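Morning run. Coffee first, then this:
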Amino acid sequence: MLTITCETPGTLKAETRAKPTRGEGEVLVKIRRIGVCGTDLHIFSGNQPYLAYPRVMGHELAGTVEEAPEGSALEAGEQVYIIPYLSCGQCHACRQGKTNCCSNIQVLGVHRDGGMTEYLSLPERFVRSAESITLDQAAMVEFLAIGAHAVRRGAVMDGQNVLVVGAGPIGIAVAIFARLRGGRVTMLDTREDRLDFAREHLGIHAAVQVGEGDREQLAALTNGDFFDAVFDATGNPKAMERGFGFVGHGGSYVLVSIVASDISFNDPEFHKRETTLLGSRNATPEDFETVVDALRAGQVPSEALLTHAMTLNEVPERFAGLLDPAAGVIKAMVRID
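And here it is:
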């Protein structure tokens, strides 16, 4: 089977590997769609903190069942999405249902080889039916679930003022699910093109471009109160530190981004506002189900999100181009047909 390997930062190689044999209790999946994530771009660029090279990227995955165990709820040919966070099910976090932060977690495409290939064999509990949604939508479930999980962590409620800093795919996912919970969403980003996308497709309340006077604009949008919930999806340490100042008194700050850096904040301001600081990592099966329900209900602008597509064969040649801001990438999809 064709497999694309990131041998070192900036180097992708197409190679032929043996098709995997289905293990006991596993489902053999024919990969049909691979969403390209910011994590993949970071791996290619050499700034992903949890990774050793070489690595097969790809964790936003959809496909069809090739083989399933006897008695499985899944059938050959059935369309599925994959939960790429392979949790142990036994550690302290897993026993509490927090499988997204399993202490022994193996994330496909990060800790172990992922789905930029033609077949994967995985334990059945990580392979879920994608009935009534398209393959493209099924491959978007994972990144959307990260946003849904962050919004659940932030406990967004109807009528609250919500700020999403960073209008890339994860920030977009946060904005979608914050709105679905009744939040009054403002987005802040350096790129006007991404803010234009958010205005056109996400139904947000406001969009503000980073620059002189941006804080004053945010204050005006909230009558000087700032925000009940702030979500950082920038992956930028300075932006993450600045975001503390946008949290209103009694508000919450959710760090969806992860960076290989220390983050600091002003303690008197933090305590004065009684800020709730939360990390948000990955997503749980509950969040995946929330996303699938939203997709089935037509509440996610999935067609607009999908801006670029390529075949698996084209990945080594075209992948680097996805890093160019001028390309206007929201979500790129690798298709195997």
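The radius of gyration is 20 Å. Good start to the day.
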